[in-house]
Amino acid sequence: xxxxxxxxxxxxxxxxxxxxxxxxxxxxxxxxxxxxxxxxxxxxxxxxxxxxxxxxxxxxxxxxxxxxxxxxxxxxxxxxxxxxxxxxxxxxxxxxxxxxxxxxxxxxxxxxxxxxxxxxxxxxxxxxxxxxxxxxxxxxxxxxxxxxxxxxxxxxxxxxxxxxxxxxxxxxxxxxxxxxxxxxxxxxxxxxxxxxxxxxxxxxxxxxxxxxxxxxxxxxxxxxxxxxxxxxxxxxxxxxxxxxxxxxxxxxxxxxxxxxxxxxxxxxxxxxxxxxxxxxxxxxxxxxxxxxxxxxxxxxxxxxxxxxxxxxxxxxxxxxxxxxxxxxxxxxxxxxxxxxxxxxxxxxxxxxxxxxxxxxxxxxxxxxxxxxxxxxxxxxxxxxxxxxxxxxxxxxxxxxxxxxxxxxxxxxxxxxxxxxxxxxxxxxxxxxxxxxxxxxxxxxxxxxxxxxxxxxxxxxxxxxxxxxxxxxxxxxxxxxxxxxxxxxxxxxxxxxxxxxxxxxxxxxxxxxxxxxxxxxxxxxxxxxxxxxxxxxxxxxxxxxxxxxxxxxxxxxxxxxxxxxxxxxxxxxxxxxxxxxxxxxxxxxxxxxxxxxxxxxxxxxxxxxxxxxxxxxxxxxxxxxxxxxxxxxx
Length: 633
Known about the structure:
Blueprint: H1 23-28, E1 37-38, H2 52-60, H3 76-84, E2 86-87, E3 92-95, E4 98-100, H4 104-111, H5 129-136, E5 145-146, E6 149-151, H6 152-159, H7 168-185, E7 195-197, H8 207-210, H9 215-230, E8 237-238, H10 242-252, H11 288-296, H12 318-322, E9 331-335, E10 338-342, H13 382-389, H14 405-414, H15 425-445, H16 453-496, E11 548-550, E12 564-566, E13 586-588, H17 620-625, E14 630-632
Parallel strand pairs: 1-8, 13-14
Antiparallel strand pairs: 2-3, 3-4, 5-6, 6-7, 9-10, 11-12
Helix pairs in contact: 2-7, 3-11, 4-9, 6-7, 15-16
């Protein structure tokens, strides 16, 4: 039997040392959080009417391509399933085929942002008034601010239209407001959902200087931090450039990818435009469970390691093309206080190279800017800035054609292979219940004729133990049916969050929840015993005072079910002739007294009874038919 049926990994915890905090640990225990709430505001970018002079300033500041970012419909379940595979220890996705990640090269191709240049760094603010008055010519009312953040709605209401013949100072103010709105809606989208920190605003004071910043590196650092935070089991939201994440998945993974219409394969730059207005017709019926299973069973044939290899490089701007070498830099990405490691050496196949076992990841402190205003963060991040300055000295190289089998053997030990259980908790519960029922039947029908008083008492105690366990499971079985309904509602809400079907407005908290029919694509058993699995206390089956009922058979479908009861060190044997499939149930009897420290007598199956193959057990009924038990008394 595959070890990973019961232990999804990591076997070696030296790399994924924070596994206990990761969402996959909670999912494995049946604690579902549903689809994440995704915050991005690209849908209203086209409501800004930019003049020709404003467009010139936007290009000069380095955002000529980002402003074209399409307002695609976010697939919350897909994004949530990807987050379950993200590991902040390595800043990579851990799939069964190996590690993958969003790289600086992806940022350059997909968004057209600069990945080389000065780090995005500046001064923090706890108030909006002074900086807005200076750079925008007005400050927002208190209702539009929260500390050092301003509402996106105020920026759009106040600056979305600028007259063609306005003075240059007015044009610059409107353009700065647009740029702040643009980054706050896309690459620096926060979990507040509708606000942006004004600390970015001074970086747009001089448009020529703004064009020298590595905005692409900052966007990737911000997204890495957002993915890492969202991968913790305590979180329920995600921010950052989620259009980038979703389109990266479309390019690299054949999961949830929209089907392009015939004749729509003309590629424009930036490459994110390929998916503008494209939606897969069936994606509405794909929930988190569907995508989780797809990623748990991901194969190499589902991966596009080099999705940009056949593009026409004539569409790539010269400055972007000249900086692509930085896409292989092992360096520190910086966005104010957010410093994250870029580790292309762990994903060399995304550069057309063979993947060896990578070096250990050097741990680093993830700093926070705190609440102090007027703080220049460059003084707090000298080491991180030093790594970024040396980015051209740390370009990773690889060997083509090397054997990757050693890498995969190593990787399977250090990774988390599965997020969802191969066998649902509900199925394991059913297996346990079937086992107890069969043992109860044997104990009730075994003849005590010819036994002495001590052996008869032992049989009586076995009957009592098993029937008490079955009583406990009656209450638990009532819980199972209710859990299915709760989880059904969670899955529906996960699909409906943010993707609102009427007018796109946020549903008020006091509105009634409208439920739709659940998708039937997933395993129906998967919906049972998830959100409240922790309420099922299997410790009830471990009895004290020398009584023990264990159930190793829950390890997997492929393993024969073996249940042991141990009472008083005495043993009892009886062949069960009424079980199905010629399975023999043995109760071993030892006539002599034994000590507490004596060996436990284990009953063996007949030699001719074969182990049931994992593929042959399709249903819980099949599992029950192949159960074998031994009762040690």
